[in-house]
Design goal:
Largest sheet: none
Structural class: mainly alpha
Radius of gyration: 28 Å
Mean pLDDT: 80
CATH topology of the domain at 54-108: 434 Repressor (Amino-terminal Domain)
CATH architecture of the domain at 54-108: Orthogonal Bundle
CATH superfamily of the domain at 54-108: lambda repressor-like DNA-binding domains
CATH class of the domain at 54-108: Mainly Alpha
Low-confidence stretches: none
Strand content: under 5%
Shape: elongated
């Protein structure tokens, strides 16, 4: 019979935990520094997102009233979203979301273009 008592079955770690920790810290600082450099190099002061715009908001509002939804709450219930989202779209402050835009197109039967 083969006797294997002479073999060492202990777990061996091939990485140094401190070196791994240092590598992770370097990655974080490197990412933060590169992001900060991009912000510094940017000539945009405001760094804001593109919104739907007031003309599109007025178009949504007119179509909502023409379809018989007298309040934003009624349209929000039909869209299965909050009233604030409908308000943001109609005021032109919303950041465009393709899912909501498609629902608005289908419910109001209009063409919306940004």
């Amino acid at each position: 019979m083969n006797n294997q008592n002479h073999q060492d079955w202990n777990i061996v770690v091939l990485r140094n935990p401190q070196a791994t920790k240092k590598r992770l810290e370097y990655g974080k600082t490197h990412f933060q520094n590169s992001f900060q450099n991009k912000l510094d190099a940017s000539d945009d002061v405001t760094m804001s997102h593109k919104t739907v715009g007031l003309s599109l908001g007025q178009q949504i509002s007119r179509a909502r009233l023409a379809k018989g939804y007298s309040t934003q709450k009624q349209l929000a219930e039909r869209l299965m979203c909050s009233q604030k989202i409908v308000n943001d779209y109609e005021s032109g402050k919303a950041i465009p979301d393709n899912k909501i835009m498609q629902k608005l197109r289908n419910i109001l039967n209009i063409t919306l273009r940004l």
